[in-house]
Amino acid sequence: MKLPDLYVQCLFTAAASREMIKREWLLDALTVMSDYSYNLSTTAKPEVGHVLQLPGADPVAKKGQVVCINKTHIGVVLDDEAMSLTIGVLSQVGQPPFDKNDEFHFDNSIARKYFGDVELVKSNIPDPTYVGRFIENMIVLQYPTNYNVFQYDNTVWKFKAVMKKVTNALIVKKLTVDQYRSFLDNFYYLNHMAELSVPGLTAKSLMTDPRVKAVKEKFIKEHQGQLTDPYVIKQLETELGIMDREFLGKDPSKIFFDGLGQKAYDLWRKKLLLMIGGIPAFDASSGKYDFNPNSLMDGWSVELLPSIANEIRKGSYERGRETAKGGAETKLVYRVFRDLIIEKDDCGTKRTIEADFKKTFNINDFIGRTICVDGVDIVLTKENADRFAGRVVRLYSPMTCECKNNLCYKCCGQRAKELNVKLIGVQTVKITSQFMMTSMKNMHGTVLQIINPELSDILL
Questions:
Q1: CA distance 322 to 145
Q2: 11, 232, 389, 401: which sits with the fewest CB atoms below 10 Å from its CB?
Q3: Residue 459 in this model has a pLDDT that exceeds 60
Q4: Which residues is 159 bridged to in the sheet?
Q5: CA gap 420, 174 in Å, rounded
Q6: pTM for the complete prediction?
Q7: What distances in angstroms separate CA 242 from CA 207, 239, 290, one per listed residue?
Q8: Cα dihedral 12, 13, 15, 21 sign
Q9: What's residue 148's pLDDT?
Q10: Whole-angstrom Cα distance, residue 415 to residue 402?
Q11: How far apart are CA 167 and CA 180, in angstroms?
Q12: What is the DSSP code (8-state) at residue 283?
């Protein structure tokens, strides 16, 4: 639903008064309650979509608070001055005033009226935003920073992306340690409100397009003898996946699946509702695949038990083997690098390596590193990264550092200096830990993918 102006006004009032962060407000505003945190009796007749003026009303109700009026209507207090209340009447009891998917436009002029001239109101949001997105922006990013560090984030939030944004602000000292702690508190507080943050259980979340079975049977019949070819298997998986996505449409559970990422569709929903699909043979060197047309909801067929058992066994075996291997590699890396430190700011080297930000590397992964452009040393920052994106530049690297026994910050990167990192051994362990984590994740299932490589990718 697109929110009328009165609803948007109530939303901004609750945000500016910080009533919005209270658990009671969130439940009263977004769910159906048996009782509300503040109940008001009056002889006045409330009407949905209208403003109710109550002179001489109980001053206990605060601006931004959700109130229940005469046990029949729900509203938000717009003003509580002069011993009276001004209430925006938003819905009848039994219907929440807001839904997290309600749309409205984030108007800069309205935001300035409520929050002043701060970083938040500089946000340019041409597309509609949503009540749920507005609430998470206010509670997680704006309240801890007093609205003056981050602009409004109108994207679908990913945990790692949000954490990276906030930790980067902390590193460059746009954020204080106390503000960072407040961010963490608010982030996990909102995340653990399951009533609001897990819209996963709907009728459509438990089923898929009823046409899937017929489409699958037709495809299998047309491709008899080809169903051990991973390319053919992937064709069917892709077709069924598109049908499943279209079936979900704008169902509330889609927000839940989108938040989990692509694996929610390509692995979990696929295996549960569509089909198991291609299963790599237990012999890793064979390149062969078994084909299981059944989903977990369809059940197991006797003739498919060997491949199912092999898949289970393969996951357990590889997890154990690769975990042991990762542990051994971690110990080796620790022994090699534990005495290596960053000892000075600049070793004085003029040697660099080539960094291709056009094709090979993502420049955002090199923020804080030093490059050399036309003989001038430049530290890459978020502000100047666009100047060098898509270019091939010379990059200072630990591989070319000329410190006698150790390394320098110029070659390792200014981010290490900002974080006061000196011991290299602790950082290098992240590489082997990632190898181990990747292998452990494989136990939970892998996604069959088809890649069309370029000739240069094969030969070089």
A1: 43
A2: 389
A3: no
A4: none
A5: 17
A6: 0.69
A7: 14, 5, 23
A8: negative
A9: 93
A10: 20
A11: 8
A12: S
- pLDDT score recorded for residue 245: 92
Taking only the tens place, the pLDDT of each residue in 302-318 is 888 887 787 777 767 76
236, 277 in Cβ contact below 8 A? yes
For the chain, domain boundaries: 5-191, 206-313, 342-422
Q: What is the DSSP letter of 282?
A: S
Beta bridge partners of 289: 280
Nearest to 187 by CA among 167, 168, 163, 152: 163
Taking residue 251's Cβ as centre, other Cβ atoms within 10 Å add up to 15
- The letter for the amino acid at 136 is E
Cβ–Cβ contacts within 10 Å for residue 68, how many? 19
Q: How many CA atoms lie within 13 A of 365 on its CB side?
A: 6
Residue tagged 């749920």 (tokens): 132
The answer to whether residues 364 and 385 touch, using CB atoms and an 8 Å cutoff, is yes
Contact 159, 128 (CB under 8 A): no
Rounded to whole angstroms, the Cα distance separating 263 from 244 reads: 14
Q: Bridge-partner residues for 69, per DSSP?
A: 40, 73
Nearest by Cα to 129 from 316, 3, 303, 258: 3
What H or E segment, with its residue span, contains residue 40? strand 39-40
* Structural tokens at position 400: 């070319």
233 or 256, which is more confident:
233
Select from 337, 376, 380 the least CA-distant residue to 355. 380
What are phi and psi for residue 385, nearest 5 degrees? -60, -35
Amino acid (one-letter) located at 315: G
Tokens of 126: 């041409």
Question: Alpha-carbon distance 197 to 223, whole Å?
Answer: 43
Phi then psi for residue 84, to 5 deg, are: -145, 165
Banded pLDDT at 446 (limits 50, 70, 90): low
CA 163 to chain centre: 9
- Rg of the chain (C-alpha set): 28
* DSSP one-letter string for 231-243: HHHHHHHHHHHHH
What is the DSSP-derived secondary structure letter of residue 256?
H
Reported as a pLDDT band with limits 50, 70 and 90, residue 58 is: low
Measured CA to CA, the distance from residue 268 to residue 11 in angstroms comes to: 36
Q: Which of 97, 87, 86 is nearest to 28 (CA)?
A: 97
- pLDDT surpassing 90 at residue 202: no
